[in-house]
């Protein structure tokens, strides 16, 4: 007998609650997961079907302090017009000096 994949195991646990009419507490104990986890899987199964039971990335959707692309392109335009070797002049033009310096450095233009 072959081993079940993680998604198959989750599907069986969900079906035990939905089809067999067993309690979440009982099924969670049998599958060694918390009740909250099983409730979350039930909700994802209802909204996304089998795809909702697959592993998901834990990577955040975005970075709240990342500079918007429009601002980043403006910083790079200013840096090229001012000269990338003049960070003080660039910082006077742009309020967020550290962020501007990081953008220019990440683009590959060295700052002293």
Give your account of this protein's structure.
By secondary structure, this protein is mostly helical. The protein contains 6 helices and no strands. Helix 1 (6-18) runs antiparallel to helix 2 and helix 4 packs across helix 5. The protein is rod-shaped.
Spell the H/E element sequence.
HHHHHH
Total strand count, please?
A: 0
What structural class should be given to the helix and strand makeup? Answer: mainly alpha
Write down the domain tally: 2
Terminal residue distance: 65 Å
Mean pLDDT across all amino acids? 81
Shape: rod-shaped
Helix amount, in percent?
A: 55-70%
Tally of helical segments:
6
Which spans have pLDDT < 50 for at least 5 consecutive residues? none
Structural Rg? 26 Å
Keywords:
about 110 residues, mainly alpha, 2 domains, 6 helices, rod-shaped
What is this structure, in a nutshell?
The chain has 112 residues and is mainly α.
Topology:
Elements: H1 6-18, H2 24-31, H3 35-48, H4 69-82, H5 87-93, H6 97-107
Helix pairs in contact: 1-2, 1-3, 2-3, 4-5, 4-6, 5-6
């Amino acid at each position: 007998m072959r081993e079940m994949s993680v998604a198959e195991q989750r599907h069986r646990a969900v079906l035990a609650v939905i089809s067999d009419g067993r309690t979440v507490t009982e099924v969670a104990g049998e599958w060694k997961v918390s009740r909250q986890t099983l409730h979350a899987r039930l909700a994802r199964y209802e909204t996304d079907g089998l795809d909702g039971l697959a592993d998901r990335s834990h990577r955040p959707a975005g970075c709240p302090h990342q500079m918007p692309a429009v601002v980043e392109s403006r910083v790079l335009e200013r840096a090229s017009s001012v000269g990338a070797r003049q960070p003080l002049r660039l910082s006077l033009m742009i309020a967020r000096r550290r962020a501007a310096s990081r953008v220019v450095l990440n683009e590959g233009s060295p700052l002293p």
